[in-house]
Amino acid sequence: MEPLFMEPVFQEKIWGGDSLQTEFGFELPSENIGEDWAISAHPHGVSTIQNGPFKGQTLDQLWQEHQELFGNQHGDAFPLLVKILDAADDLSVQVHPDDAYALKHEGEFGKTECWYIIDAKPGAQIIYGHTARTREELAQMIREERWDDLFNKVTVKKGDFFYVPSGTIHAIGAGIMILETQQSSDTTYRVYDYDRKDDQGNTRELHIEQSVDVTTVPARDTTLSISETKHGKSSVITYLQTEFFNVYEWQVHGTLQLNQQAPYTLATVTEGYGKLVVEDKTYELTMGTSFILPNEIKNWELQGEATLIASEPGEMA
């Protein structure tokens, strides 16, 4: 069985730039590409398999027709989505619903996500959480546009990691590139968008009522228990283990041998280069390479000097 390598799906955004080309070497269709949907079965951007017996097929098709690849994890939709985001400008301040609200109002999963900071310009910031103590205070602060009082700002650097559960007010700031692991959902409620206009001179839609409905109040503590396991000169950092997904950093310095821990594993190279060895077959890895290790692959070896962010489905995925 071969790994499943993914063709990137690029999304143009008002806040996007060209770093996915200058830093990762992708050929971009425009100068305002904000997102690479690296591993996705979501209908708004479906990945296509690049190699092997399933070359040319889409990930959503494999999920429906070849459940054996995913350990027979029966479900209506592939549960995870991995993106690389290039924020040349500030993203809107937003919040995502949980499963119950999203399924009722949007007909899809809710959106819990997490961010690995691939790179950040000096002083770059994210908005992460809020100060309101009650839902009524939240609504009032939004109504009065008391943004500086409401939003918590955090300065970030390369290698930082953030957990962003549904209900968390958040925004990625200008000058930041991240690897995002999330539930397979495209539901976003905008709280604030800096009053900016699109190419037609229109402001983007805000979703104040929904935002107040779904925001967790008061903001929850998302302190993480991050651990590192050494494998010679290489290492595995465990960032997160939740009901939706488990997320790891694979630091490869020479070689790193790993065994399957879940029905399938997703991975993206965020820095460096190297090789993936599966059953004596070798695959080249460069920045931006994304792949799935399906259920039949029980162990593999990584070689080279590289950083990969990997994820697995959680118990509820």
UniProtKB/TrEMBL annotation:
Catalytic reaction equation(s): D-mannose 6-phosphate = D-fructose 6-phosphate
Top-level taxon: Bacteria
Active-site residues (renumbered): R190
CDD domains according to UniProt: cupin_PMI_type_I_N_bac
Domain Phosphomannose isomerase type I catalytic: 5-105
Any GO molecular function: zinc ion binding
Ligase listed as a keyword: no
Pfam families attached to this UniProt entry: MPI_cupin_dom, PMI_typeI_cat
SUPFAM superfamilies to which the protein is assigned, alphabetical: RmlC-like cupins
Protein EC: 5.3.1.8
Entry note: cofactor: Binds 1 zinc ion per subunit.
GO BP terms: carbohydrate metabolic process
Residues the record lists as binding Zn(2+): H96, E113, H170
InterPro entries referenced in this protein's UniProt entry, alphabetically: Carb_Metab_Reg_Kinase/Isom, Man6P_Isoase-1, Man6P_isomerase_Firm_short, MPI_cupin_dom, PMI_typeI_cat, RmlC-like_jellyroll, RmlC_Cupin_sf
Cofactor section: Zn(2+)
Keywords carried by this UniProt record: Isomerase, Metal-binding, Zinc
Boundaries of every Mannose-6-phosphate isomerase cupin domain copy: 237-312
Family note: Belongs to the mannose-6-phosphate isomerase type 1 family.
Protein name from the UniProt record: Mannose-6-phosphate isomerase
